[in-house]
Design brief:
With 264 residues, the protein is of the alpha/beta class. It has a single domain, classed as Aldolase class I (TIM Barrel, Alpha-Beta Barrel). The chain is built from 10 helices and 8 strands. It has an 8-stranded parallel barrel with strand order 1-2-3-4-5-6-7-8, surrounded by 9 helices. The chain is globular. Bound molecules: zinc ion (ZN).
Amino acid sequence: MNNGQYFAFNIWDFESARAVIDAAESIRHDVILQTSTGIYKSLPARVFSDFVKSYAAYKGIQAWLNLDHCKEKETIFHAVNSGWDMVMADGSSLPIQQNVDFTNEVISYAHSRGVFVEAEVGQVKGIEDDVIVRQDAIASREEIAEFLHKTDVDFIAVAFGNAHGEYKAEPDLHYDLVEYTTSITDKPFVVHGGSGLSDEVLTKLIHIPGVKKLNISTDLKTAYKRGIEKSCGAWSQPINASKIIHDEIMSEAVAKMKLLGRRK
Ligand SMILES: [Zn+2]
């Protein structure tokens, strides 16, 4: 993937995928689209990946598809065989050795089919859990080193105080863990829970060499909700409502991707 830096946006249907690809085209930057396991199962996988590839090609950019946070081997293998470019083998809730074993099993299946694998050490807390990350969810240096030594993972995510969903309090990010990880490996580092981090924080992360993928989910869904509300107020025809929603999602994605440009 050209060793570039990318935002990875969680999309939920064809229209949200189209809005993100339009955003990428508008600033001429390649992009990663990702689906949660639940969304993956709601989509006609092969038709969806064909759509993403052909629409991105039509727009003259690259769009990669990732299966985000998946704990189910069968679903991961299905995505590998359905045109997904990357899969996240999420064994982060398992003891470290089981996480290693699970990841390695996915790697041996995915790599032989040309698909990249992401994995996570430590647990990035989800919206269902307490949003403020508990200390014990943060990865230890020993576990990170052990995991990287025992796997040939393509993208590494580490819980460093980040969280999924909205941050209820100012996040206490352990930048030293990000820097430690990127100092011991040249594998691309993934920032989960990018939604709700300020532009300043995202920019600071973007400036750490080795940070290559920044995940945004909640912010895009919030933009969708804004679009729905606006479109109800301005209701005339479905096509007008669709455009208002599309443009809200697109401008949110553009605003995030423009942060990458600040690097130059
Ligand atoms: Zn995540």
